[in-house]
TrEMBL record:
Protein name: UspA domain-containing protein
Highest taxon of the lineage: Eukaryota
Residues in UspA domain copies: 9-146
Source organism: Camellia sinensis
A Pfam family recorded for this sequence: Usp
């Protein structure tokens, strides 16, 4: 036996709009990813927050209590979705560039864009992918702001 074989690892990195996620990715590339281990798979995950719903109060009812309705015009929803998709793609491209150009690592990189609350999406993805390592950036909030 000439040496020990490197194990295949799935490394999940959360990517968002903040610089903290890029710093976390950079840290991961320097400290977690093994350049000689071509079996490592780096999974970049962007959790796209659901579209907000804006309530309006409809006072044009016969009853004593006004009805609360939720409306968003189709063109407004389409614009919001397009913006969110472009933002997600832009951040993922930046993350992939960081992997290839800045750190010049030859590691398999997968990207995933999921919709939902980032806390839930990250946990579900880690479980579904059987991630060996999960790396997230920190905004530096104290216990009160979390």
């Amino acid at each position: 036996m000439g040496g020990c074989e490197a194990n295949e690892r799935k490394i999940l990195v959360g990517v968002d709009e903040g610089d903290e996620s890029m710093y976390a990715l950079s840290w991961c590339l320097k400290n977690v990813v093994v350049p000689q281990n071509s079996k490592d798979t780096l999974v970049l995950l962007y959790a796209q927050k659901p579209r907000p719903i804006y309530p309006i109060i409809d006072g044009a009812t016969v009853s004593d209590e006004p009805k609360i309705r939720y409306i968003l015009m189709p063109d407004v929803m389409e614009t919001m979705d397009r913006y969110n998709n472009e933002l997600a793609e832009s951040r993922m491209e930046k993350a992939k560039r960081l992997c290839k150009e800045v750190h010049n690592l030859d590691v398999k990189v997968e990207t995933r864009i999921e919709s939902g609350d980032p806390r839930d999406v990250i946990c579900q993805a880690a479980e579904k992918l059987s991630a060996d390592v999960v790396v997230l950036g920190s905004h530096g909030y104290g216990l009160i702001k979390r």
